[in-house]
Design brief:
This protein is mostly helical. It has six helices and no strands.
Length: 106
């Protein structure tokens, strides 16, 4: 495209030449995401009393993950789910752990 070099060269070339220092691994936030996913699963199933399939659909929209991926994460974290069931945290306790979610029961 005509004039492309003069318009965009100063923006993108200087940014691409900058060195990145110590990149984080690709899955850096994955453990935190999985803890939040388990907490939301507990909230929807135990506090809101949603059915399993409805809960999975809600989690798909909240975390932008596919249904098989959510099921895989939940099955890998079944021990953490059992710990939450034993603890029986209220929605206020969950809000303290993960304040960026809406924890009001339906």
């Amino acid at each position: 495209m005509r004039g492309q070099q003069s318009l965009f060269s100063s923006k993108f070339i200087t940014e691409s030449k900058q060195e990145r220092t110590q990149q984080r691994p690709r899955n850096y936030y994955q453990p935190e995401r999985n803890r939040a996913l388990v907490a939301r699963y507990y909230f929807h199933v135990e506090i809101n009393r949603y059915r399993y399939d409805d809960c999975i659909k809600l989690l798909e929209g909240e975390f932008y993950l596919t249904e098989p991926r959510i099921i895989h994460v939940l099955s890998k974290n079944s021990e953490r789910i059992n710990d939450l069931i034993r603890e029986e945290p209220t929605h206020k306790d969950l809000a303290e752990r993960h304040p960026h979610f809406n924890w009001r029961p339906r």
